[in-house]
């Protein structure tokens, strides 16, 4: 194994000493076993999706599952068709989608494009979710074992928590961007190395490159990391003033190099994100709407072994946002860990704990919420909630930081436990087992998805839809409704164009550029969504038919497609027939209205 120092345990904030020369450098099989265990656990968490990646969707988040199917298909088009990586014209016709302003994970979707091309986007989605969990755990294991702890077991436990804590497992319900945190530990380590002599340019450029890669995975996680490092550095500097003064110049210079490197690499992509076509500002909800419930910190997540669905639902926004849920045992062990480290790594452990605690408080939002009740007690987030960039973040996700901090503190405490007297060491290990076993993850639930009809699977649509026209599925692709249409488009490789979709874009440009989860409202899409949801056939007049004709012309529609025998299918069929003034034909398992010859409304 490799250690940081020969005599004293490492200080996480200032790990400048090289590994001990006498530490054995072999035992590659130990690291291999650690990485293998993470991979096996990740596969088990996603096993139900692995069984049929193209025919199942994650039960708790089929919206984002469908979105990332689209993202994978877009990555395939970038590599194999030369598509613009920052913009897609295959969905939301005629306006398109700003992919930089969405979580397009280009650093992941483009590298796996060959897999998407050969096996479909469903395989790429489950593969990246699996690699995200296992890779995050492995990355933390690597940094911890090489730089922060002596014992591989300590690094393995720390990596296990960082990769498979309740927050990570919750986001594995479709959030590829939030489980793919394998860049973060290396970014953190390179930032810390900026304090070392001779590292200004080397680590500065490394930080800039890692920041760039992280931008193309998840900017929210990058923001969380930056805020956490800022709090950590300030806390550590307050505890170690002389050391901080000595390193301040080098650290600042290295950050300057990092900023210049990242700015040069990201200038054009960020222009696309904030000023390009389809860009937006703000969220479709206020910053304090979704926050961490105080009681969720000591509860169990719904995907933990000891989790209770009813309790978790009462304390969490959704199954994907169980961002704390440590359980009572883990809270006790974290307190024990901080106490244990007060001597061996006092400043570093204290600064790390402070950073995690600050971000946990931020995740509580502008006012304290407990047991689902918002109290009048004000919290610090109210002071920063309207700042640019902060207003783009879902507040509860700030709690992913203390979740990761908990893994680092656990690793340090396990490493320090070897110096405890026998009885205390035994008590420590019993407590750790009691804390970890109840939060062990369960396989994520899935449901069967609507199969791709032969009309699409066999390419029959090509006889009806020219390149400059669109295929309109009913209901149209939207958030929470019409998911099937977006999923079908993705599984078809985005070979045909579609109107609307589930994505982030301006709600009503150019008058209102506030972010929205769907395209600007249209009469026909609203009508068909309501009919599909509630099954009530509307009474339509001539003005309604003219409005529908205008929408079809706006969408450049060639055909309107409905799967018979679906939810409220008979009412939808009657409504579409009334709107276009003709009945459908049955082709390849779908009902099809050919509207290529339909004259536009006057």
UniProtKB/TrEMBL annotation:
Instruction: Tell me what this protein is called.
Output: DUF6311 domain-containing protein
Give the InterPro entries listed for this entry.
DUF6311
Q: What is the lineage of its organism?
A: Bacteria, Bacillati, Actinomycetota, Actinomycetes, Micromonosporales
The UniProt annotation puts the region (Disordered) at 1-23
- The entry's keywords: Membrane, Transmembrane, Transmembrane helix
TM spans (from-to): 28-51, 125-144, 153-169, 223-239, 251-271, 325-341, 348-369, 389-414, 426-444
Keyword Magnesium set for record: no
Q: Which residues form the DUF6311 domain?
A: 86-431
């Amino acid at each position: 194994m490799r250690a940081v120092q020969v005599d004293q345990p490492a200080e996480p904030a200032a790990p400048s000493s090289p590994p001990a020369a006498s530490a054995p450098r072999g035992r590659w099989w130990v690291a291999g076993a650690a990485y293998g265990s993470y991979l096996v656990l990740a596969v088990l968490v996603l096993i139900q999706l692995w069984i049929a990646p193209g025919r199942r969707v994650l039960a708790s988040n089929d919206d984002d599952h469908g979105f990332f199917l689209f993202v994978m298909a877009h990555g395939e088009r970038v590599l194999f068709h030369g598509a613009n990586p920052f913009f897609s014209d295959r969905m939301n016709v005629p306006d398109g989608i700003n992919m930089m302003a969405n979580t397009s994970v280009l650093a992941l979707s483009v590298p796996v494009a060959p897999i998407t091309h050969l096996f479909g986007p469903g395989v790429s989605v489950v593969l990246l979710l699996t690699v995200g969990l296992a890779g995050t755990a492995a990355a933390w294991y690597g940094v911890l074992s090489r730089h922060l702890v002596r014992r591989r077991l300590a690094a393995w436990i720390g990596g296990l928590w960082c990769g498979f804590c309740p927050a990570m497992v919750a986001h594995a319900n479709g959030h590829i961007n939030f489980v793919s945190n394998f860049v973060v530990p290396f970014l953190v380590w390179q930032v810390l190395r900026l304090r070392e002599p001779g590292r200004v340019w080397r680590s500065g450029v490394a930080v800039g490159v890692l920041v760039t890669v992280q931008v193309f995975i998840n900017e929210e996680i990058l923001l969380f990391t930056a805020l956490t490092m800022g709090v950590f550095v300030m806390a550590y500097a307050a505890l170690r003033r002389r050391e901080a003064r000595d390193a301040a110049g080098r650290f600042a210079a290295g950050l300057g190099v990092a900023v210049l490197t990242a700015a040069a690499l990201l200038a054009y992509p960020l222009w696309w994100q904030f000023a390009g076509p389809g860009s937006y500002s703000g969220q479709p909800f206020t910053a304090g709407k979704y926050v961490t419930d105080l009681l969720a910190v000591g509860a169990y997540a719904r995907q933990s072994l000891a989790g209770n669905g009813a309790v978790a639902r009462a304390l969490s926004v959704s199954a994907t946002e169980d961002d704390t849920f440590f359980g009572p045992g883990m809270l006790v062990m974290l307190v024990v860990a901080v106490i244990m480290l007060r001597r061996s790594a006092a400043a570093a452990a204290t600064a790390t704990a402070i950073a995690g605690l600050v971000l946990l408080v931020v995740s509580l939002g502008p006012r304290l919420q407990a047991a689902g009740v918002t109290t009048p007690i004000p919290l610090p987030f109210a002071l920063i909630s309207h700042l640019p960039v902060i207003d783009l973040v879902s507040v509860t996700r700030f709690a992913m930081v203390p979740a990761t901090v908990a893994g680092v503190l656990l690793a340090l405490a396990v490493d320090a436990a070897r110096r405890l007297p026998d009885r205390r060491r035994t008590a420590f290990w019993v407590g750790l087992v009691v804390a970890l076993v109840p939060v062990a993850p369960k396989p994520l639930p899935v449901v069967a998805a609507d199969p791709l009809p032969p009309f699409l699977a066999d390419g029959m649509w090509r006889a009806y839809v020219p390149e400059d026209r669109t295929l309109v599925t009913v209901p149209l692709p939207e958030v929470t409704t019409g998911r099937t249409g977006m999923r079908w488009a993705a599984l078809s490789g985005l070979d045909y164009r579609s109107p609307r979709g589930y994505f982030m874009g301006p709600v009503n440009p150019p008058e209102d550029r506030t972010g929205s989860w769907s395209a600007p409202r249209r009469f026909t899409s609203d009508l068909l969504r309501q009919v599909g949801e509630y099954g009530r056939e509307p009474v339509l007049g001539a003005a309604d038919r003219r409005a529908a004709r205008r929408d079809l012309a706006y969408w450049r529609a060639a055909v309107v497609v409905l799967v018979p025998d679906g939810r409220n299918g008979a009412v939808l069929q009657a409504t579409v027939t009334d709107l276009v003034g003709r009945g459908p034909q049955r082709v390849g398992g779908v009902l099809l209205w050919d509207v290529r010859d339909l004259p536009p409304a006057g």
